[in-house]
Amino acid sequence: MPLKVSLVSAEAELWTGEATLVVAKTVEGEIGFMSGHEPVLAILAEGQVRITRPDGSKILARAEDGFLSMENDELTIVAGNAALIS
């Protein structure tokens, strides 16, 4: 079962969809999320967010100044500054 992911900046929703893996940089280090991950609330550090979609394609973004929240296979990434790379 894939994750439901939302990547939001202060200006707009950048991407919403399903993913099998999301890796993001937090102040505690990089953390990866897959279906079934325990609930997490973490502060984002400046760095890449790597999203792998169910078809294997990848989405890259840069994000900083925000937080991420994981609960019930739903991951929300809220960044003050974020932009899609590809």
Low-confidence stretches: none
Q: Give the mean pLDDT.
A: 96
Rg, Å, rounded: 11 Å
Q: How much helix, percentage-wise, in residues?
A: under 10%
Sequence of secondary-structure elements? EEEEEEE
Query: How many beta-strand elements?
Result: 7
Numbering strands along the chain, what is their spatial order in the largest sheet? 2-1-7-6-5-3-4
Q: How far apart, in Å, are the first and last alpha carbons?
A: 24 Å
What count of helical segments does DSSP give? 0
Strand content: over 45%
Categorize the overall geometry.
Answer: globular
Largest sheet: 7 strands, mixed
Given helix and strand content, the structural type is: mainly beta
Descriptive notes:
This protein is an all-beta fold and 86 residues long. Helices cover 0% and strands 73% of the residues. The chain is built from no helices and seven strands. A seven-stranded mixed beta sheet has the order 2-1-7-6-5-3-4, with no helix packed on it. Strand 1 and strand 2 form a beta hairpin. It starts with a strand and ends with a strand. 24% of the residues are buried. Keywords: ATP synthesis, CF(1), Ion transport, Membrane, Transport. InterPro entries: ATP_synth_F1_dsu/esu, ATP_synth_F1_dsu/esu_N, ATPsynth_dsu/esu_N.
